[in-house]
């Protein structure tokens, strides 16, 4: 199995490492249809007010059902989607006002690893060229054995530099994807479901590699993953997202959930994986996830929540430390109150 960093978990209020990224009030809306009279027919509120920070050497994980906005957050950090509102600061500099050279530094130091390692490469390129591509794009010099060194770093033989993607398994190819992400000596890796497409037997190896690299290089990770056991084991802080917003955040929220949505997410997982303090009662959520083009008023989860009362439709609950233990919860009726 994978190594766990749970013993090292620090109170998020006192993070150990330097702050690298700070995201405040992030909104990413996608207008749909044709614009008429200055208005679009519909807007997808994919990310609708999200705050968090990433620190050196730490892993923050994003969890939540499909479509809640996780990938959109991830892609915004590497410039693949533009925020509609809010700020992304890297080492204190705001992306909205950053100079060209600051943006180049950011594009080097924040890298992304995708779910499908084959989909993001040209199958006709040799591994050496795949790994060196980011250096070429940035116009940086390529040391003679840079691909070989990066392959060794990710546990592959240096001679693989001369081979082509079809010669590798999914796990090996994901290692190559990680080597490519490391080529520019990043400080932050955005890991968008890096193990979801791999055989279960390989997943732990990739997670272990990522944890070792984090120890060695002090990398900050934003991890998106569906496997609760993995997320619990490797995260310093977990953010639970629902319909574009964070509803619960803290180091222990997957062991000791306080928000009804987190409880419902965990109740769908077999108990051995959840841990002793997780909710054991099976919770069946009623109804579908509402459309992100028309989120409910007040608390977005209220239309599926068994605790919902009038106040939930009227007042949006803030993401607050409701227990004094550093975990943040956006519910009018959290479990631990
Ligand atoms: N370019 C786009 N144009 C319109 N809508 C989009 C676009 N990108 C994402 N969306 C919508 O934004 C919402 C959030 O999508 P996102 O991919 O971020 O969710 P997710 O939580 O990562 O889901 P998954 O786990 O399935 O990847 C979804 O409703 C999605 O359809």
Can you tell me about this structure?
This protein has a seven-stranded mixed beta sheet, with helices on both faces. It has a single domain (6-256), classed as Rossmann fold (3-Layer(aba) Sandwich), CATH 3.40.50. The chain is of the alpha/beta class and 337 residues long. Helix 3 crosses helix 4 (146-153), helix 3 runs parallel beside helix 5 and helix 4 packs across helix 5 (170-182). The model is unreliable at 4-14 and 271-279 (pLDDT under 50). The longest helix has 18 residues, at 200-217. The protein has helices at residues 70-77, 100-109, 127-137, 146-153, 170-182, 200-217, 228-234, 260-267, 271-274, 310-314; strands at 19-36, 39-55, 59-63, 85-90, 93-94, 110-113, 188-192, 220-224, 237-242, 245-250, 328-329. It is built from ten helices and eleven strands. It is globular and about 65 Å long. Adenosine-5'-triphosphate binds at residues 30, 44, 46, 64, 66-72, 292. Pfam families: ABC_tran, oligo_HPY. Keywords: ATP-binding, Nucleotide-binding, Transport.
């Amino acid at each position: 199995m994978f190594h766990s960093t749970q013993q090292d978990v620090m109170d998020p209020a006192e993070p150990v490492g330097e702050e690298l990224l700070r995201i405040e009030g992030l909104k990413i809306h996608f207008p749909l249809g044709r614009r008429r009279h200055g208005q679009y027919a519909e807007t997808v509120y994919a990310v609708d007010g999200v705050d968090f920070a990433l620190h050196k050497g730490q892993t923050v994980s994003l969890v939540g059902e499909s479509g809640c906005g996780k990938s959109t957050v991830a892609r915004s950090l590497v410039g693949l989607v533009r925020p509609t509102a809010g700020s992304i600061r890297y080492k204190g500099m705001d992306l909205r006002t950053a100079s060209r050279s600051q943006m180049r530094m950011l594009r080097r130091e924040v890298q992304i690893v995708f779910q499908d390692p084959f989909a993001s490469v040209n199958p006709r390129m040799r591994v050496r060229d795949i790994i060196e591509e980011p250096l070429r794009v940035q116009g940086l010099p390529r040391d003679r054995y840079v691909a070989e060194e990066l392959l060794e770093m990710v546990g592959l033989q240096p001679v693989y530099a001369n081979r082509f993607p079809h010669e590798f398994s999914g796990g090996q190819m994901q290692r190559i994807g990680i080597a490519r992400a490391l080529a520019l000596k990043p400080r932050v890796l955005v890991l968008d479901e890096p193990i979801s497409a791999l055989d279960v037997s390989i997943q732990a190896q990739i997670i272990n590699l990522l944890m070792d690299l984090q120890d060695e290089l002090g990398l900050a990770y934003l991890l998106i993953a569906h496997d609760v056991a993995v997320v619990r084991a490797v995260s310093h802080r977990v953010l639970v997202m629902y319909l574009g917003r964070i509803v619960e955040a803290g180091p222990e929220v997957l062991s000791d959930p306080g928000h009804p949505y987190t409880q419902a997410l965990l109740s769908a997982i077999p108990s051995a994986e959840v841990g002793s303090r997780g909710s054991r009662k099976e919770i069946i959520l009623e109804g579908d996830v509402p459309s992100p083009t028309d989120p409910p008023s007040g608390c977005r989860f209220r239309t599926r929540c068994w605790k919902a009362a009038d106040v939930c439709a009227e007042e949006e609950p803030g993401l607050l430390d409701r227990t004094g233990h550093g975990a943040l919860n956006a519910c009018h009726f959290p479990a631990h109150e």
